[in-house]
Amino acid sequence: MSKAIGIDLGTTNSCVSVIENGTPVIVPAASGSRTTPSVVGFTKEGERLVGENARRQAVTNAKRTISSVKRHMGTEWTVDIDGKIYRPQTISAMILRQLKEDAEAFTGESVTEGDIGQLKETKQTLQEAMDHVME
After folding, report:
1. pLDDT tens per residue across span 97-106
2. In terms of C-beta density within 10 A (0-12 exposed, 13-18 middle, 19 or more buried), how is residue 14 classed?
3. 82-86 contacts: CB < 8 A, separation 24 or more?
C-alpha cells in the first residue's frame, strides 16, 4: 500500500506529514528534528546534501550551498555548480525528494502522492517540482 504526504515547503525550513489512524503526524527528518532546513549543498567531491547536513557545510562551503530558493520561484534565477545550471524548481525538487524519502523511511511504505501547501502565485512552479519528485 502507498501513502500520500502533505508538505510545507518553507523558505527557511520544510516539513512533511502523513495520516496515521486518521490523524496527521509530522514525519521526523533524517536528523531527528520535526523540520528539515530548506537548504541544498554540494560538497567539493560532488555529493549532494539536503537539510541539516547542507546547512552545516554552508559555513565552510557557502558558494556551493543554496538556501531560501523558494524566494526565486517563478523567476529566471539560476545557480551554477560545477558547470551545471540549477533552477529554483530543481533545487526545490531536491528538498521535496528528501522529505519524500523521510516519509517513506518513517512509514515503511512508498509515497506516490503528495500535496504542497503554498501561495497561489507559486503553485504552478512548485507543482512542477512535485511532479518531478513523484516520477
Report:
1. 999 999 999 9
2. buried
3. 82/42, 82/46
